[in-house]
Amino acid sequence: MEELKELAYILNKYQPRSIQIIGHDAWQSDSKLSQLYEVIQNDEVTSDRDAAHLIYGEEENSSKYRNLKHELKKRLLNTIFFIDNNEDKKRDKAYYQSWKDWAACQILIEKSARQTAVSLAEKTLKRCLKYDFLSLVSSIALLLRNHYALREKNKKRFEYYDNLYENSRRQEEYNNLAHKYYMKLILDYTMDSVTANPQIEADAQVYYQELAHLKKETNNIKFHYYLYQIQLLGKMGVFNYQAAKDICTDAIAFLRSQDVAFKGGMRNFLLNKLVCHIQLREFEEGKQAAIACNKLVANGTFNWFKTNEYFFILSFHTGNYQEAYDDYFKIVNHPRYKTYKILHETWALYRMYLHFLYLLGKFEPATNDNSFNNIRLGKFINAVPSFAKDKRGMNIPVLIIQMAFLILQHKYDSATERIDALNKYCDRYLKTNDPNFRCNCFIKMLVQIPKSHFHRSGVERKAEPYLRKIQRIAINFNNQAHELEILPFEHLWEHILGALENKFFRPKSSRSEKNG
Question: Which helix (DSSP H) or strand (DSSP E) does residue 255 occupy?
Answer without folding.
Answer: helix 241-257
